Amino acid sequence: MASIDLHGMGVALITPFKDDESVDYDALTRMIDHLTENGTDYIVALGTTAETPALSESEKQEITGIIVERVNRRIPVVLGIGGNCTRQIVSQIKTINLNGIDAILSVVPYYNKPSQEGIYQHFKAIAGVSPRPVVLYNVPGRCGANMTAETTLRLVHEFDNITAIKEASGNIAQIDDIIKNKPSEFQVISGDDGITFPLIALGAAGVISVIGNAFPKEFSRMVRMALQGDYPNARIIHSRFAELFKLLSVDGNPAGVKSVLNMMGFIENRLRLPLVPTRITTFEKIRDVLHKLNIIPPESSV
Q1: Could you say which of 42, 137, 258, 285 is catalytic?
Q2: Is 60 in the active site?
């Protein structure tokens, strides 16, 4: 099996914007340094959290180039290449510059609502042309279609270069089924920060994290402790962030984590339409939690 080690905490990197909604490349560089210097095991570029559907092709290329250059092989870089037109994705994989890219993350086709056979054939086509290991991405809440454990395992057992799955179905039984029946080298990765701890206890390899944008050192420590079987201390960190996990999703991703990063002074609190920042009530609740965690001072007026 074509392999890449994705144990630990990957971070689905945000795209910072300026007040005029142009990409803030200086802030992007600072974010990359923040992650690579504070325990992040790998970076996922151009995922959901990056607001990729709202980026132009030239912006995607520039963002990817900056990430690859700044990371400079210190940690792996996984590139999101997905969509709901199989032919287009296959063509893109054949022509895109993958220098410095260690794996491809590809999402279940959205909107079309394909059958399980359609999902299987989609990823079969991708596996057939990809020169890099393929990480499947199952997120039915966004795609409108769930890839079942049966389909995942069928793909995993038939294609050597399908090396991992980011599972964000929230269905513990489904994820456990994959973990129990997968090849030993295949990695199941949590796509949900809030259930990463229990999934690692079941045998998951780690997480592709959103909250890790803001707290790479703390959250990667939790993941490593859990992977080492130190569940009592991992649970302490998990519980510390439990309230924040919930708040970050209230107004959608990445609005929640961008508000946190704004309060911490990393970025402007800007998203691109159709996404908008968190409501003021959510913003204030997040700020209160950061106060309680001593992450920002109570007198902060950000």
Answers
A1: 137
A2: no
- Within 8 A by CB and 6+ apart from 127, the residues are 134, 155, 159, 161, 162
Distance CA 56, CA 98 (A): 18
Residue 146 in tokens: 């769930």
What is the token pair recorded at 185? 């080298």
Check residue 3 and give its pLDDT: 77
Please pick, among 60, 166, 258, 285, the residue that the annotation labels catalytic. Answer: 166
> Is 137 part of the annotated catalytic residue set?
yes
**What confidence tens digit (pLDDT) does each residue in 168-197 have?**
999 999 999 999 999 999 999 999 999 999
Task: Note whether 138 and 111 are within 8 A (CB).
Answer: no
Give residue 297's pLDDT. Answer: 81
Would you state the structure tokens that stand for residue 132, as one six-digit string?
A: 């890099």
Three-state secondary-structure class, residue 212: helix
Residue ranges in the chain modelled with pLDDT below 50: 1, 300-302
Residue 76 to residue 208: CA distance in whole angstroms = 13
